Amino acid sequence: MLAYTPEQPPRRHCMPKKILVVEDDRHLVELLKFNLEKEGFRTSYATDGSVALAQVRRDKPDLVILDLMLPGLDGLEVCRQLRRSDEFAALPVLMLTARGEEADRVAGLEIGADDYVTKPFSVREIVARVRALLRRREAPSSSATAVIEHQGLRMDPQQHSLTVDGKRVELSALEFRLLYFLASNPGRVFSRDQLLDRVWGDDRSVTPRSVDVYVRRLREKIEPLPARPRYLQTLRGVGYRFTAGEE
Q: Which of 30, 89, 141, 213 could form a disulfide with 170 if both were Cys (CB 3.0 to 4.6 A apart)?
Protein backbone atom coordinates (compact mmCIF):
# COMPACT_ATOMS: atom_id res chain seq x y z
CA MET A 1 0.00 0.00 0.00
CA LEU A 2 1.87 3.03 -1.29
CA ALA A 3 1.01 6.65 -1.90
CA TYR A 4 0.16 7.46 -5.49
CA THR A 5 0.00 10.55 -7.65
CA PRO A 6 -3.52 11.33 -8.91
CA GLU A 7 -3.94 11.64 -12.65
CA GLN A 8 -5.53 15.07 -12.28
CA PRO A 9 -5.29 17.61 -9.45
CA PRO A 10 -8.29 17.56 -7.12
CA ARG A 11 -11.04 20.08 -7.65
CA ARG A 12 -11.31 22.52 -4.79
CA HIS A 13 -14.23 24.66 -5.89
CA CYS A 14 -16.53 23.43 -3.10
CA MET A 15 -16.08 22.79 0.57
CA PRO A 16 -13.89 19.69 0.94
CA LYS A 17 -15.67 16.59 2.17
CA LYS A 18 -14.87 15.41 5.68
CA ILE A 19 -13.69 11.82 6.09
CA LEU A 20 -13.35 10.11 9.47
CA VAL A 21 -10.86 7.22 9.49
CA VAL A 22 -11.51 4.74 12.32
CA GLU A 23 -8.48 2.45 12.52
CA ASP A 24 -6.16 1.36 15.34
CA ASP A 25 -3.12 0.83 13.09
CA ARG A 26 -1.35 4.20 13.27
CA HIS A 27 0.73 3.51 10.15
CA LEU A 28 -2.43 2.79 8.16
CA VAL A 29 -4.11 5.90 9.58
CA GLU A 30 -1.23 8.08 8.39
CA LEU A 31 -1.23 6.41 4.97
CA LEU A 32 -4.95 7.01 4.49
CA LYS A 33 -4.83 10.56 5.84
CA PHE A 34 -1.93 11.51 3.58
CA ASN A 35 -3.53 10.18 0.42
CA LEU A 36 -7.07 11.38 1.15
CA GLU A 37 -5.81 14.89 1.94
CA LYS A 38 -3.75 14.77 -1.24
CA GLU A 39 -7.04 14.19 -3.05
CA GLY A 40 -8.61 17.25 -1.42
CA PHE A 41 -10.50 15.65 1.48
CA ARG A 42 -10.40 16.83 5.08
CA THR A 43 -9.60 13.94 7.39
CA SER A 44 -9.72 13.13 11.07
CA TYR A 45 -9.21 9.83 12.83
CA ALA A 46 -10.13 7.73 15.84
CA THR A 47 -8.45 4.58 17.11
CA ASP A 48 -11.36 2.98 18.99
CA GLY A 49 -15.08 2.63 18.52
CA SER A 50 -16.33 4.74 21.42
CA VAL A 51 -14.18 7.71 20.43
CA ALA A 52 -15.33 7.28 16.82
CA LEU A 53 -19.00 7.57 17.78
CA ALA A 54 -18.29 10.72 19.78
CA GLN A 55 -16.41 12.26 16.85
CA VAL A 56 -19.20 11.46 14.42
CA ARG A 57 -21.69 13.24 16.66
CA ARG A 58 -19.37 16.23 17.13
CA ASP A 59 -17.86 16.66 13.65
CA LYS A 60 -20.61 15.21 11.42
CA PRO A 61 -18.31 13.78 8.71
CA ASP A 62 -19.49 13.11 5.17
CA LEU A 63 -18.15 9.54 5.19
CA VAL A 64 -16.58 7.07 7.64
CA ILE A 65 -13.85 4.55 6.83
CA LEU A 66 -14.37 1.99 9.57
CA ASP A 67 -12.10 -0.91 10.53
CA LEU A 68 -13.92 -4.03 11.67
CA MET A 69 -11.44 -5.05 14.38
CA LEU A 70 -11.17 -2.26 16.96
CA PRO A 71 -10.44 -2.10 20.69
CA GLY A 72 -13.54 -1.56 22.79
CA LEU A 73 -16.53 -1.29 20.48
CA ASP A 74 -15.76 -3.16 17.26
CA GLY A 75 -16.63 -1.84 13.80
CA LEU A 76 -19.83 -3.83 13.54
CA GLU A 77 -21.20 -2.32 16.74
CA VAL A 78 -20.14 1.19 15.71
CA CYS A 79 -21.94 0.78 12.39
CA ARG A 80 -24.99 -0.71 14.11
CA GLN A 81 -25.26 2.28 16.45
CA LEU A 82 -24.91 4.74 13.57
CA ARG A 83 -27.73 3.04 11.69
CA ARG A 84 -29.99 3.19 14.73
CA SER A 85 -29.57 6.97 14.84
CA ASP A 86 -31.96 9.04 12.74
CA GLU A 87 -29.24 11.65 12.25
CA PHE A 88 -26.62 9.25 10.91
CA ALA A 89 -28.67 6.46 9.37
CA ALA A 90 -27.69 7.63 5.87
CA LEU A 91 -24.03 8.38 6.64
CA PRO A 92 -21.86 6.44 4.13
CA VAL A 93 -19.73 3.79 5.83
CA LEU A 94 -16.85 2.01 4.09
CA MET A 95 -15.91 -1.08 6.11
CA LEU A 96 -12.21 -1.91 6.21
CA THR A 97 -10.86 -5.20 7.51
CA ALA A 98 -8.35 -7.98 7.06
CA ARG A 99 -11.13 -10.55 7.13
CA GLY A 100 -12.11 -11.38 3.57
CA GLU A 101 -14.53 -14.29 3.87
CA GLU A 102 -17.93 -13.78 2.24
CA ALA A 103 -19.71 -14.29 5.57
CA ASP A 104 -17.82 -11.34 7.04
CA ARG A 105 -18.60 -9.14 4.05
CA VAL A 106 -22.28 -10.01 4.26
CA ALA A 107 -22.30 -9.39 8.04
CA GLY A 108 -20.93 -5.90 7.45
CA LEU A 109 -23.52 -5.14 4.80
CA GLU A 110 -26.35 -6.56 6.90
CA ILE A 111 -25.72 -4.18 9.79
CA GLY A 112 -25.54 -1.20 7.46
CA ALA A 113 -22.12 -0.77 5.82
CA ASP A 114 -22.36 0.67 2.32
CA ASP A 115 -19.20 -0.93 0.97
CA TYR A 116 -16.46 -3.30 2.04
CA VAL A 117 -12.71 -3.39 1.34
CA THR A 118 -10.31 -6.05 2.59
CA LYS A 119 -6.66 -5.63 3.52
CA PRO A 120 -4.23 -5.48 1.86
CA PHE A 121 -5.74 -2.88 -0.46
CA SER A 122 -4.48 -0.25 -2.86
CA VAL A 123 -4.87 3.39 -1.88
CA ARG A 124 -6.23 4.06 -5.36
CA GLU A 125 -9.06 1.62 -4.66
CA ILE A 126 -9.91 3.28 -1.35
CA VAL A 127 -10.05 6.72 -2.97
CA ALA A 128 -12.22 5.36 -5.79
CA ARG A 129 -14.63 3.74 -3.32
CA VAL A 130 -14.83 6.93 -1.25
CA ARG A 131 -15.65 9.01 -4.31
CA ALA A 132 -18.26 6.47 -5.45
CA LEU A 133 -20.02 6.50 -2.07
CA LEU A 134 -20.03 10.30 -1.97
CA ARG A 135 -21.48 10.44 -5.49
CA ARG A 136 -24.27 8.11 -4.42
CA ARG A 137 -25.06 10.29 -1.44
CA GLU A 138 -25.20 13.48 -3.49
CA ALA A 139 -27.30 11.95 -6.29
CA PRO A 140 -29.22 9.10 -4.66
CA SER A 141 -31.56 8.57 -7.59
CA SER A 142 -29.39 9.75 -10.47
CA SER A 143 -31.30 12.32 -12.55
CA ALA A 144 -34.74 11.21 -11.38
CA THR A 145 -36.96 13.95 -9.99
CA ALA A 146 -40.47 12.48 -9.86
CA VAL A 147 -42.13 11.88 -6.51
CA ILE A 148 -43.36 8.28 -6.20
CA GLU A 149 -46.45 7.40 -4.17
CA HIS A 150 -47.82 3.88 -3.71
CA GLN A 151 -50.32 2.90 -1.00
CA GLY A 152 -48.79 4.73 1.92
CA LEU A 153 -45.23 4.89 0.57
CA ARG A 154 -43.92 8.25 -0.66
CA MET A 155 -40.45 8.92 -2.08
CA ASP A 156 -39.12 12.36 -2.99
CA PRO A 157 -35.70 12.09 -4.68
CA GLN A 158 -35.08 15.83 -4.55
CA GLN A 159 -35.39 15.81 -0.76
CA HIS A 160 -33.97 12.28 -0.40
CA SER A 161 -36.98 11.57 1.78
CA LEU A 162 -39.12 8.49 2.30
CA THR A 163 -42.27 8.15 4.37
CA VAL A 164 -44.30 5.00 4.94
CA ASP A 165 -47.83 5.53 6.25
CA GLY A 166 -46.81 9.07 7.17
CA LYS A 167 -43.73 8.03 9.18
CA ARG A 168 -40.31 9.15 7.98
CA VAL A 169 -37.86 6.35 7.23
CA GLU A 170 -34.11 7.01 6.99
CA LEU A 171 -32.28 5.24 4.17
CA SER A 172 -28.68 5.26 3.06
CA ALA A 173 -28.04 6.68 -0.41
CA LEU A 174 -27.70 3.24 -1.95
CA GLU A 175 -30.81 1.90 -0.20
CA PHE A 176 -32.72 4.90 -1.53
CA ARG A 177 -31.47 4.35 -5.07
CA LEU A 178 -32.39 0.68 -5.02
CA LEU A 179 -35.90 1.27 -3.68
CA TYR A 180 -36.49 4.21 -6.00
CA PHE A 181 -35.45 2.16 -9.03
CA LEU A 182 -37.74 -0.73 -8.14
CA ALA A 183 -40.63 1.60 -7.24
CA SER A 184 -40.17 3.40 -10.57
CA ASN A 185 -40.86 0.09 -12.33
CA PRO A 186 -43.78 -1.41 -10.36
CA GLY A 187 -44.60 -4.99 -11.24
CA ARG A 188 -41.45 -5.57 -13.28
CA VAL A 189 -39.10 -8.31 -12.11
CA PHE A 190 -35.34 -7.63 -12.02
CA SER A 191 -32.64 -10.22 -11.50
CA ARG A 192 -29.78 -9.57 -9.10
CA ASP A 193 -27.38 -8.94 -11.97
CA GLN A 194 -29.81 -6.48 -13.57
CA LEU A 195 -30.09 -4.59 -10.30
CA LEU A 196 -26.31 -4.46 -9.96
CA ASP A 197 -26.09 -2.98 -13.48
CA ARG A 198 -28.96 -0.52 -13.06
CA VAL A 199 -28.39 0.63 -9.46
CA TRP A 200 -24.70 0.10 -8.75
CA GLY A 201 -23.51 0.62 -12.35
CA ASP A 202 -19.80 1.41 -12.76
CA ASP A 203 -19.49 1.77 -8.98
CA ARG A 204 -20.22 -1.94 -8.55
CA SER A 205 -18.15 -3.47 -5.75
CA VAL A 206 -20.57 -6.05 -4.40
CA THR A 207 -21.65 -9.55 -5.37
CA PRO A 208 -25.13 -10.65 -6.49
CA ARG A 209 -25.69 -12.08 -3.00
CA SER A 210 -25.18 -8.60 -1.57
CA VAL A 211 -28.33 -7.49 -3.41
CA ASP A 212 -30.25 -9.87 -1.14
CA VAL A 213 -28.73 -8.13 1.88
CA TYR A 214 -29.85 -4.69 0.68
CA VAL A 215 -33.37 -5.92 -0.06
CA ARG A 216 -33.55 -7.47 3.40
CA ARG A 217 -32.40 -4.20 4.96
CA LEU A 218 -35.07 -2.30 3.04
CA ARG A 219 -37.77 -4.73 4.15
CA GLU A 220 -36.77 -4.31 7.78
CA LYS A 221 -37.22 -0.55 7.39
CA ILE A 222 -40.34 -0.25 5.25
CA GLU A 223 -42.37 -3.43 5.70
CA PRO A 224 -44.66 -3.74 8.75
CA LEU A 225 -44.26 -7.53 8.44
CA PRO A 226 -40.96 -8.28 6.64
CA ALA A 227 -41.87 -11.97 6.39
CA ARG A 228 -44.99 -10.96 4.39
CA PRO A 229 -43.69 -8.08 2.26
CA ARG A 230 -46.13 -5.40 1.24
CA TYR A 231 -43.87 -3.71 -1.30
CA LEU A 232 -40.78 -5.77 -2.12
CA GLN A 233 -41.58 -9.22 -3.44
CA THR A 234 -39.13 -12.07 -4.10
CA LEU A 235 -39.63 -14.39 -7.05
CA ARG A 236 -37.43 -17.36 -6.18
CA GLY A 237 -34.83 -18.11 -8.81
CA VAL A 238 -35.77 -14.96 -10.74
CA GLY A 239 -35.30 -11.77 -8.73
CA TYR A 240 -37.25 -8.95 -7.09
CA ARG A 241 -40.11 -6.64 -7.92
CA PHE A 242 -41.98 -3.74 -6.36
CA THR A 243 -45.60 -4.73 -5.91
CA ALA A 244 -47.08 -1.26 -5.28
CA GLY A 245 -48.74 -2.63 -2.16
CA GLU A 246 -50.88 -5.08 -4.08
CA GLU A 247 -51.40 -8.63 -2.88
A: 89
